[in-house]
Structure formats: structure tokens, C-alpha cells
Amino acid sequence: MIEPAVYLDYLNRFDIEAAGITDGEILDAITESLAMQGRGETSIEPRMHIRPRAGVEGHFNVLRGWIGGEIDSAGTKVVGDFVDNYKEGRPSEYGLLTLFDPRNGAPKALIDATGITEMRTGAITALGAKHLAPSNPRILAHIGARGTAYWNIRLLCHLYDFDEVRVHSRRKESRDAFAARLSADLKRDIVVTEDWESCVRGADIVVEASRLPQPTPLLKTEWIKKGALVIPYGTMSAVELSLTDIADKVVMDDWGQAHGIFGSLRAHVDSGRLTAESLHAELGQIVAGVKPGRESDDETILFWHRGLSLSDIALGHAMLTKAKRLNLGQRLRFY
Q: Which InterPro entries does this chain map to (predicted)?
């Protein structure tokens, strides 16, 4: 019996850019993956971490999962998260996504996931807001200017016509360049603030995507407006322990990833302030209609997302589908 040949599709950064996936296509792909998660049509394992030698400010995240349906792929993404890369003009994160046939284990695709990581994170932020933000959010506050920050704001602005978008980050040159890029791409004014407080106070949606070298409670609970949606997801926590005290609902993308060595609310889980019982829902359950999202504009809601392999697999599949239609990428003989 002759063994069947195995080929895999390869998309590099330039193929991803040439595919020109739209904001709507990104949101559609991630919406479907969340709904499938909520219906139990997926399998996801908690992320793992690889920490290199002492003295390096960075680590690797290893994400694993499977999605059924038309996607029908198992996948693993490895993404390096190195906060000092900007000093060499590099992105903070490099990512590589591998997709496999879940029926025989054969590799299907190898995809540059640096851009996918940023896009799918922004999509989870935006879709969290779609289901959890107050009904007419007017002010968006965003802390952080690198990595996933651009897609957070771009996709939130795709969903909402904000009166004001505020941004802040530690380095002036970083936040000014970030605001200039957003202003040019989104054709709107961006307010650059000099500190965390002036960015956050009075905002209807607060996204905390800072890149701290160690946990530091820079985002004060007292600044949060009643009825706001707060989305912290940095690797190192920037929030106070009291943040969960003001939340009427706490939502996650996946409770299985609430534990571990990193994460904005890890201390809240470790101290018992956030438990499986006190968690209102996973976002997929809300998207699938299994549990309610926001039910009143008076609710202050906290949405902590850790990042899902399912999102990477779904968006990678969407990228592959479009790239094939446009005759992009390479087909490599594997076996």
C-alpha cells in the first residue's frame, strides 16, 4: 500500500498582508469560534509557558486546541512575548501557528501568527465589548501602545462611533506614534494623555493592555466609572485587588486559563476573590446565548481575556481560505 503524500500550506507575513482580511471578516471568524466554544464544539487546553534563561525579560506562550465544524483542525500556536524587543525595532511578539488534521494527525498548515495574534486579541476585546459594554459607550480609554493595542482600538472603533478615544503608554514617543497611526488609519482624532488617571476617569470602556516588567497596581479602582466595562489582559497585572469588589459581573474567555504564573487577575484567583462560582460566564457562553451578557447600563463589568488557541485556529483557517482564493502562499511537501 502506497502511503499518501502529505502537503502543508505556508503563509508568511507578506502573504497575510496581501490577503487583506477585513475587520468584518476577522470579527466573523472569531464570533463563530466563540459560539462553537459556547456550544461545546471545541476542545481547549490551558496555555503553557516556556521561560528562557535568567536575565531575559520575556517568555513563550504555548496554546493548544481543536475546533470542529467546517474548520475541523487541531492547532498549536507558540508566541514569544519579549517586552524589550522595541529597542531593536522588533515587534513585542513573534508567533507561529501550526494546523493539523484531527483525523490522522497530518500537518495541514504553517502560518505566521504574529499578525493573527494581534488581530484575534483585538477581536476578542471588541466582541467582549459588543456583549458587555453599556448600550451607548461614548469614551474609550486604552492603556498600552504596542503589540495588540492597535487592533483593540481599530476593531472597537469598527463597532462603535466614540466621541473620544484616549490613549496612554509609558513612553511619550511610543504613545505619540501610536496615536498618529490610529488617527491616519481611522480618520479620527485620538487624545493622547500624560498619565493613567486622565486616560481612565469617566471612560465607558477601559482597556488595560500595558506591558509591565512586573505586577504594579497602576490602574486604580476608584477611577472606574459605574457602569463601565473594564478589560484588563496584560501578562503582568496593573490592577488593584479591589477591582473585583466593584464588578457586578466578571467574565472570562476561558476559566481553564484563570490559573498559572501570569495574568491580570491571577492574584484575584489565588486570593479567592475570583472563583469558578463567582465567575458570571465565559464569553463563548454569552455569544452562544447560553448565558446573558450585560443586562443593565448600571452594571460595572470586568472582562478578563487570556487569549484562546481557538481564536488563532479560526482566524488562521479564515486566512488560509482567503489566501487560497487569491492564490497566495506556498504549498510545501512534508512527507
A: NAD(P)-bd_dom_sf, ODC_Mu_crystall, ODC_N
